[in-house]
Specification:
alpha+beta, six-stranded antiparallel β-sheet, two-stranded antiparallel ribbon, 8 strands, transmembrane helix, transmembrane
């Protein structure tokens, strides 16, 4: 009889432990928005350290971009206040006249970065500046 009670107790504890593991694994934690690192396409632009890089396009002739996923981000809410503050602390100023909808344009010196917020992800895009090549003609001799 005693063995049967011990077996039930161990079985019950095992079920409780499994339920706790499932609950802990399924719970989506909100990002802290306190630790930042440089973006893969522009090291001077902050991205949350908790963000996971999912796609990158480098060496494109018109732009470089990187896509990050992060829990808790919602397009309709825009950039979280703590992230906006970090961007400003890193020296970036928003060009509000060029920002539209979920896309925000930031400037730092001659650098431009576009940050687009999506549900559970965001994209950092760096457009390439057009370089105009100057061709000098050969002057004719008299």
């Amino acid at each position: 009889m005693r063995r049967k009670e011990i077996g039930y107790s161990l079985g019950f504890m095992w079920v409780v432990v499994m339920i706790l593991c499932i609950i802990a694994g399924c719970a989506s934690s909100e990002p802290s928005w306190t630790n930042f690192v440089g973006a893969a396409v522009e090291k001077s632009f902050p991205v949350p350290k908790e963000a996971t890089q999912t796609e990158t396009a480098l060496n494109n002739s018109k732009m470089d971009y990187v896509h990050y996923s992060i829990a808790g981000l919602r397009e309709e809410d825009g950039i979280p206040e703590a992230y906006q503050k970090a961007i400003q602390e890193w020296g970036w100023m928003e060009r509000k006249e060029e920002s539209t909808g979920a896309t925000h344009v930031f400037e730092k010196g001659k650098l431009i970065v576009q940050l687009t917020v999506h549900d559970k992800s965001f994209t950092v895009l760096v457009p390439k500046l057009e370089e105009k090549t100057v061709i000098q003609g050969i002057e004719g001799s008299p």
